[in-house]
Design goal:
By secondary structure, this protein is α/β, with parallel strands linked by helices. The protein folds into 4 domains: 130 residues, N Utilization Substance Protein A, Chain:P, domain 4 (2-Layer Sandwich), CATH 3.30.1480; 67 residues, Nucleic acid-binding proteins (OB fold (Dihydrolipoamide Acetyltransferase, E2P)), CATH 2.40.50; 76 residues, GMP Synthetase, Chain A, domain 3, CATH 3.30.300; 90 residues, K homology (KH) domain (GMP Synthetase, Chain A, domain 3), CATH 3.30.300. The protein contains 13 helices and 15 strands. β10 and β11 form a beta hairpin. α2 crosses α4. The longest helix is centred in the first third of the chain and has 30 residues. The protein is elongated and about 105 Å long.
């Protein structure tokens, strides 16, 4: 009688957990049956072809020894004769004989507890994983908990741990324990220890999401971010455009007294952000991308994706930028290789570039040595003379060193 009451309480507990944790009731029952079978084999022998079942209504658990009915028995552990099985069994049927141990109740209760705890843990992990998968490529706020091997670990919403790898941190940014950090959800992974949320402060997507939060026109789709080029912690260039002639995309992003872009810059710890007007005309777009430098002309060489950009001599250093940053970001923003020259050397730069193109074309047109394949032999690989010379020098050096030793 007490065991029956315990079984009834077990069903009540499983049903309550199913509702509270949003875990399918049948999943809990199946997991419990599998665990009971494992427990039975561990404590009472695993040689039998056992089967454990839990009654969905009463919670009563039963262990059976399943055998197949045959005309002639060859393995008594797995088979039973038609005569032994009796009516109404026929050859090919399953014969289930109850073998539930008398003292199996204590083991079953302990097993049930373990299964429930495990399933709750798995369900919570799935909940966390699904929650942050939906927030992939979004911005979250967390507090710094600790550092491990230069990786930063944050707590999201006060309960979910996330990692900000060293490779996704911005050079020069320093955070102390319990500081708030706004970061970009770069990836969500499943691991044996639970879901791992990977954050980034260096991703270009962080700039995009922050702009969407600050600029209603971007969130509403009136202004569109066409491209972003970023050097984290230093400078970003953002190309924006709109299909509405009455809307100024740059003014919308800057906001009143540049307040909107200032808020984005503050969230990026002072990173400078250039808002560039996108243009379908590539030459015009490259001119815009090189701002604040003024551009005299842009000549496009579409076959190799290069643009020859001419700027006033006094603007040359501004166009290139400190350590080449401005032209580097403009190239990444436009997707073109930019060759910049001042007005005074424009013709020489063009001739030099054309000569380089001619050399590359000539090198590409040079006939390549064809592999020679003798009948019945593996094909040989053609090796250029320079490589052969270097290999021969290496071989002589090795032989000389060995002789000297």
């Amino acid at each position: 009688m007490p065991e029956q009451m315990a079984e009834e309480r077990l069903i009540d507990v499983l049903q309550a957990i199913s509702k509270e944790r949003n875990i399918p009731f049948e999943m809990l029952i199946e997991a419990l049956e599998a665990a009971l079978l494992t427990a039975y084999k561990r404590h009472f022998g695993s040689e039998a072809n056992a089967l454990a079942t839990v009654d969905r209504r009463t919670g009563e658990y039963t262990v059976y020894h399943r055998r197949i009915v045959v005309d002639e028995v060859t393995d008594p552990k797995l088979e039973i004769s038609v005569q032994q099985a009796g009516e109404p069994y026929q050859a090919g049927d399953f014969y289930d004989e109850e073998v539930t141990p008398k003292d199996f109740g204590r083991i079953a209760a302990q097993t049930a507890k373990q299964v429930i705890v495990q399933r709750i843990r798995e369900a919570e992990r799935d909940t966390v994983y699904n929650k942050y998968v939906r927030r992939l490529n979004d911005v979250v706020v967390g507090t710094v908990q600790r550092y491990e091997q230069r990786n930063m670990f944050l707590m999201l919403e006060g309960k979910d741990e996330a990692i900000l790898p060293y490779s996704e941190q911005v050079p020069g940014e320093m955070y102390r324990i319990n500081d708030f950090v706004r970061a970009y959800v770069l990836d969500v992974r499943k691991s044996p220890k639970g879901p791992q949320v990977v954050l980034s402060r260096a991703a270009e997507g962080l700039v995009q999401r922050l702009l969407e939060q600050e600029v209603p026109e971007i969130a509403d789709g009136i202004v569109e971010i066409m491209a972003i080029a970023r050097e984290p912690g230093s400078r970003s260039k953002v190309a924006v455009g709109t299909l509405r002639a009455e809307v100024d995309p740059i003014g919308a992003c800057l906001g009143p007294k540049s307040s909107r872009i200032a808020n984005v810059s503050d969230n990026l710890r002072g990173e400078k952000i250039d808002i560039i007007r996108y243009d379908d005309d590539i030459a015009t777009f490259i001119m815009n991308a090189l701002a604040p430098a003024k551009v005299v002309s842009v000549e496009l060489f579409e076959d190799d994706g290069t643009a020859l950009v001419i700027v006033p001599d006094y603007q040359l250093s501004l166009a290139i930028g400190r350590e080449g940053q401005n032209v580097r970001l403009a190239a990444r923003l436009s997707g073109w290789r930019l060759d910049i020259a001042g007005e005074s050397e424009a013709e020489q730069a063009r001739e030099r570039y054309l000569a380089e193109r001619a050399e590359r074309a000539a090198a590409a047109a040079m006939p390549q040595a064809e592999p020679v394949e003798a009948p019945g032999e593996e094909p040989e690989v053609a090796v250029d003379a320079e490589l052969i010379r270097r290999l021969e020098e290496f071989r002589r050096e090795r032989l000389g060193g060995e002789d000297g030793g």
